[in-house]
Write a structure and sequence with these properties.
81 residues, alpha+beta, Alpha-Beta Plaits, 4-stranded antiparallel sheet, 3 helices, 4 strands
Length: 81
């Protein structure tokens, strides 16, 4: 069963910084999951990642957290299903 997660900023990041972070997340996971670059390009404080293989979820979440630290973004990763 695949899973979906939402990446939600818990503070108010600058919109351009959050979108830059989202674009890097997109590049990091697009080969394994479904992620919509147009959603990221219009995001203010959240975007979703879909069809995450169950055996890859932990690794993908760790990649997102590492990128959030790189961009100084405080983000919460929430299950959507």
């Amino acid at each position: 069963m695949s899973r979906s997660i939402a990446v939600v900023a818990t503070s108010s990041p600058a919109v351009h910084n959050f979108r830059d972070f989202g674009e890097e997340v997109y590049r990091a996971v697009r080969d394994e999951c479904r992620i919509d670059i147009s959603e990221i390009d219009s995001a203010r404080d959240r975007f979703s990642i879909y069809e995450i293989p169950p055996n890859s979820k932990g690794e993908i979440v760790q990649r997102i957290k590492k990128l959030a630290r790189k961009y100084s973004i405080e983000a919460e990763i929430r299950n959507e299903d």
